Model the fold of this input.
Amino acid sequence: MLVYPSGIDLSSRALRHLSGVLAGHRRRIGSRRRRLSCGRQALLVLAHLRCGDTCARLAAGFRIGIATACRCIREAVDLLAALRPTLEQAMTTVRKKAYVILDGTVLPIDRIAADRPYYSGKKKHHGMNVQVLADPAGRLIRVSDALPGAVHDLTAARTHGIPAALAADPTKCWADKAYQSAGPAVRVPVRGTNLRDWRRRHNHDHAKIRSLGERAMATLKCWRLLRKLRCSTTRITAVVRAIVALELAT
Done:
């Protein structure tokens, strides 16, 4: 197999942060000498998460076995996932903002047509539903755990307790029409087709505010692994948590 040098569009802070997390973990468990140093393992994991490289390709590039590459990735992902802020910690950040934006997205997965619970009728493909909270500048505040793609956005938000948590704070939240009846804290556009002028203007202004949340979605999708997840659906939540932890830390 041919091997070539490549690059990752991340700052060195992400590498240093993950290397520190791995070094602390190795000290805690008294790990013996490994094939990869903390820095090399961190680089391997970042290449997997950011570029979507498979374990086989990474194993060839780092000159290790495929099973070793998979273990390195799983270990680092689990460590990072544990660092993701909880909903209570996210609400502390929300209270400091003028308002927040709530939106949902479906992360594509490779499933066959028979896997109906994962098929999103809105997106017309199989995926996992995650709920994203962003600040007025479009920066990520929190991303929820992953649910099957067939779950409606409002149901997913309620499952994660987001509307209830927002209702307990004075901060307002902007969301799209999918979140009708989410609660007093969640502002949604006016529904209907033949709307009066003031209602059309209201919906236009609402969309301008809510569109800033697309920056958070774009930040999430910059991690190319999330553009087509091929791992087990039971691991997707850990992967999303790990990516969010890296984004918030760097």
About this structure: Strands lie at 99-108, 119-120, 125-134, 140-143, 147-148, 172-174, 186-187. The CA atoms of residues 112 and 126 lie 8 Å apart. The two ends are 34 Å apart (CA to CA).
